[in-house]
Amino acid sequence: MTRSRLTPEREAELYEAVLDLLREVGYDALTMDAVAGRTRSSKATLYRQWRSKPELVAKALRHSKPVHVGDIDTGTLRGDFHAMLARTDDCRMEKDSALMRGLAQAVHANPDLHEALRELLIEPEITGLDVLLRRAVDRGEIRADNPALGYVPHMFLGAVVARQLIEDRAPDRAFLIDYLDAVVFPALGA
Which of 61, 82, 181 is nearest to 132 (CA)? Predict the structure, then answer.
């Protein structure tokens, strides 16, 4: 499949339309017809660029992600995590967490969506976190045998999900910085 027909600007426009539709109608009601109508494109064009709705959704989410974790290197683990949080804002976090809550429901009924999200969104993020953590181990900030290393993605996801469930508030930078200082860094011995 060739993707060369779309300019980066057009691709970004299509991705934004997908995310808007997801927020408006949810994953199950989102259709390629609706995306085509919203973006004044043909369904054939969409299927030429993306094999399926799950792939389109996962790539739209990946495109909208302002932080590529593996690219951050401030020289300290604390600095890296703070830089990661500084690259987004509270409004975006609130919108993204609402989107992810809706997708969490859809994942249970759509194995293709689950696979696309794991491949295109989750695994690259886990790989990026692993790079940050490996650097921290190499610098001597964390012991290589620390059992918490394997749970850092779980801790982050837990913070994002639990805040809404427990406090009925979206996660924001201040909360996540406090969470890092109170939970993640102590668990890592950093």
Answer: 82
Q: What is the rounded CA–CA span in Å between residue 113 and residue 159? A: 23
Tell me the C-alpha distance between 183 and 190, whole Å: 11
And the tokens for 12? Answer: 């970004």
Rounded CA-CA distance 65/73 in Å is: 18
pTM of the predicted structure, to 2 decimals: 0.73
Burial 2-30 (b: 16+ CB within 10 A, else e): eeeebeeeebebbbebbbebbeeeebeeb
For 153-183, write each residue's pLDDT tens digit: 999 888 888 888 888 888 888 999 999 999 9
Contact 5, 49 (CB under 8 A): yes
